[in-house]
Amino acid sequence: MKTILIVDDDVHIGDMLEEALSKERYLTRRAYSGTEAIMILENFRPDLVLLDLMLPGACGEEVLQKTGDIPVIVLSAKADPDSKVSLLLGGARDYVAKPFNLGELMARISVQLRGAPDASGGLCEFDGISLDSLNRTVSYHGEPVKLTRTEYAILKIMIQRPKQVFTKTQILDRISSDTPDCTDSSLKIHISNLRKKLREVSGKDYIEAVWGIGFKLEQGSKKQ
Fold first, then answer.
1. What are 181-193's pLDDT values in tens digits?
2. pLDDT at 88
3. pLDDT tens across 3-26, in order?
């Protein structure tokens, strides 16, 4: 069963979410402040986070920075386009304005968790590429792909959020604990090598550079 962390200081909203999620057979944990949420995330990895922004202690934006590659759906009364864009570029997977429709939120949660491995690890797949986080292996239609530690860490981030654009800063922040030797100047080299290895085994280009922003994992296009 998948576990969802509810981060909201509004007890009524939190109770409503917990009841609805339990009926859908999700496990839940609660945090009533941003500081408490960060403490939980340091020792526990949920499968998804429902995150309010206006929190006592650390704000929601600070909590978002600590979620790594965990899917996050922001629940907020801040509905202006600039806030949404900033949060989505900052790593949020989705944004739902308060007050929200509970049925719609449950559907959005289901979409984010569809096919996702449990927090303990598992298999991620995208367009023929398979990444097994339990055994730390990568393959393309069953053919092994040998990656360095840094290349593996980069691919793991991207395959969990395909088609999302990651800035260089986001990538470096999220792989820093696994690959402290990767720097701003060397990141492009690691991504280039990863792209080349995936191309050699598949004949496709999977990693696309988005000019002025960063990189994303796209459905592979055949090289001519």
1. 778 788 889 999 9
2. 80
3. 899 999 999 999 999 999 988 888
CATH no. of 123-222: 1.10.10.10
pLDDT at 56: 93
Output the 3-class SS for the chain.
CCEEEEECCCHHHHHHHHHHHHHCCCEEEEECCHHHHHHHHHHCCCCEEEEECCCCCCCHHHHHHCCCCCCEEEEECCCCHHHHHHHHHCCCCEEEECCCCHHHHHHHHHHHHCCCCCCCCCEEEECCEEEECCCCEEEECCEECCCCHHHHHHHHHHHHCCCCCEEHHHHHHHHCCCCCCCCHHHHHHHHHHHHHHHHHHHCEEEEEEECCCEEEEEEEEECC
Which CATH number applies to 3-113: 3.40.50.2300, 3.40.50.2000, 3.40.50.300, 3.30.230.70?
3.40.50.2300
In angstroms, the CA 57 to CA 202 distance is 48
Fill in the amino acid letter for 15.
Answer: D
Domain segments of the chain: what residues? 3-113, 123-222
The pTM assigned to this predicted structure is 0.55
**What is the share, in percent, of the chain residues with pLDDT greater than 90?**
42
